[in-house]
Design goal:
By secondary structure, the chain is mostly beta strands. It contains 2 helices and 12 strands, in the order βαββαβββββββββ.
Length: about 200
Amino acid sequence: AFDQDSLYILDDSEFRSAFISGNLAADLFAKIDGLNVVAPKWKNCVDCRPSVDEIKINDLFKPLAVGERISFNSAGYGVDYLGQGWSSPEPWGTWSDSSSSVVFLPTLPKEVHSILIDFNALITPSHPAQRVEIIVNGVQTASMTIKESSAATEVKLPEAAKLDSFSGIKIEFLLPDAARPVDVGLGEDGRTLALGLLAITLK
């Protein structure tokens, strides 16, 4: 969360993550004197000067095509599209590490019918289910209860989620049952895990 009365200078990786998780309608993301600058709520300020160096989506991300399968393991380029709420990528994929995690896919929403999500889940005998709410471009899109440690689900994009003015699909996973493995009998891992993201396919 950014303070409205501060400017932030971030490295490339953190800048992409902030861009994904930020409010593109209100927050300014710009390249100034070679630095990645975030100015929270700048676009809502009537007395603030606009920036000619405002960063656009295509400046940071490779556009994705319908039919493309995006992998989120440590060798996959999908990690560039992870916003807030994720742990470090691993050889198989990336765990969520919060009760809310965000992915941004730079593509034209109106061309996408659905998204196929391949994932693992933190499921144990003492923690037998994970509830997941999926919000796409601010629209409540799916609600499910996962009871298997590995699964896939296809989520249809509602028409209201295709009306965003920017060229992308912002997916927010709400994970109320996220838990620490150390608390559910799985070693000493102290992260707050729920969903292990393997891949997303645009359809």
